[in-house]
Amino acid sequence: MRILLDACVPERLGRFITGHEVQSVRVVFGTTDLDDGLLLARAVASGFEAFVTVDKSLRYQQNLVNQPLRVVLLRAHSNALEHLVPLVPTLQAALSEMEIGTVRVIGV
Question: In terms of Cα–Cα distance, which of 8, 23, 10, 92 is closest to 55?
Answer without folding.
Answer: 8
